[in-house]
Design brief:
Layout (H helix, E strand, L loop, with lengths): L6 H13 L4 E6 L7 H9 L13 H4 L11 E8 L13 E2 L8 H19 L5 E4 L7 H7 L4 E2 L5 E2 L7 E8 L19 H5 L17 H5 L17 E3 L3 H4 L2 H6 L11 H4 L3 H5 L3 H8 L9 H12 L7
Helix pairs in contact: 1-4
Amino acid sequence: MASTADDSLSAGIKATAADLGFHLCGIARARRLDEYKPYLSDWVDAGMNDSMAYLSRDIDKRLDPSSLLPGARSLIVTGLGYCQEKGQRDSEAPVLSRYTYGTDYHRVVAEKLGRLLAWIKDKRPGVTGRITVDSSAILEKAWAREAGLGWQGRHSIVINREIGSFFFIGILIVDAELDYDQPFEGDLCGDCRICLETCPTGAINSNRTIDARKCIANLTIENRGPVPAELVPRLGKRIYGCDRCQEVCPWNKKAGPCGSPEFTIDEEIAGMSIDEWKDLSPERFSRLFKNTSMSRVRYEKLMDNIRAAIGTDVREL
């Protein structure tokens, strides 16, 4: 395990990350992010985490990467783009968030980080690491800023000036000291408020947080109950997630597609008509989505979402 910063190892990590297909890679010094505690506590206290009770537990642990890896010294933060030119073809069909396209991102990013960790261990035997991909008690967005990847936009999502915000964050925590990038300073959103003003349900708060009780992404995925009746007219045919705040962001319009091939939408899914969605059977649902990030939602919940988004003429369960 390195006891002092290793510039050559750090450069090798970034080069290897690029070879593995990552679009972004930065390195941050492990520390407690105590400055974020008031924001997280106030957000939870206001009930804006909705049914995601796990976000209210162990807040102190979320601030400290050593709670995931004792002796943590560095966080290698990566970004893997997923914005593709190719999407759903039937304009009348229910709408899926872009992040559902292709193979489940948890699996893709974790596999790449596993290969990166293996490379590090080969170069520096004895190093211990912990991989996290939207799956552990850690503040991914804050660490992306710490590693210099970008800033947190008004829609709460991290924006990189080169590739926009359509990228998955993956983090590899290691107990080796490395050469650290400077945290991203500043706010390149300027006076722009397009995302906040365009959100279909007004879920974006003025302090760059999201009220999950109104957020279409939460209501169609995490929340196990039906979409509140007063918000149904605002779904805009969305049945799993919502990309609206990112679609209107000028930084994404500037960046253009930068998606990895693993996140190319399946041809059968891309071509599904509105009638095929209405008649989606449990068997077809399982076959089409078992290897995607949509596997986390129950079939019954998805069909409820379809009923809400495009009407009641849907296969009865």
